[in-house]
Specification:
The longest helix has 23 residues. The protein has a domain of 104 residues. The protein is mainly α. It has seven helices and no strands. It is 62% helix and 0% strand. Helix 1 packs antiparallel against helix 4, helix 4 packs antiparallel against helix 5 and helix 4 runs parallel beside helix 7.
């Protein structure tokens, strides 16, 4: 049954998933796995040229990730980047769960489908990396969530 309403059930599922996500991130941090990891490609994002010769889209790197990275560096520091990337991932999972609930799936099915996504390879290996892959995966999940949400919206 499609529903345009958000209910206490949506909030409850969001709290459960958010709590599991936060607990997993705290576990990773306690194990020293939430430190930013630089890779060979990281330097290209850190030293992204914003001048007109690059034209933003003229090179191999688009300006989206460097913009997010530079904003984080200037406000919170590079240490916050793994946390921000992880929060984007968990938020996308919560959005998918909400859309599935709106599509009429039971809470048990939604939790069974989304909880395993939390300790997936993303949070353990991609989120600490200063690479566009992490936010790219989160944006992919958000796209799936948006499509599911659209399906859940009753036609007028």
């Amino acid at each position: 049954m499609k529903s345009s309403r958000f209910t206490a059930q949506h909030l409850w599922v969001a709290v459960i998933l958010g709590s599991i996500g936060l607990a997993y991130l705290i576990l990773l941090a306690a194990r020293g796995q939430m430190q930013p990891e630089l890779h060979p490609d990281s330097q290209e994002y850190l030293a992204f040229r914003w001048d007109s010769s690059n034209r933003g889209f003229g090179g191999i790197r688009t300006p989206g990730y460097p913009l997010v990275l530079q904003s984080c560096l200037r406000t919170l520091g590079i240490e916050a980047m793994p946390w921000l990337q992880s929060l984007a991932y968990v938020a996308a999972i919560v959005w998918i769960a909400s859309a599935l609930l709106r599509l009429g799936f039971s809470t048990a099915i939604v939790l069974a489908a989304t909880i395993p996504l939390i300790p997936a390879i993303h949070l353990t290996y991609l989120a600490p990396s200063i690479l566009s892959d992490s936010l790219g995966l989160s944006c992919s999940l958000a796209t799936v969530a948006a499509l599911l949400d659209h399906l859940a919206t009753p036609s007028r």
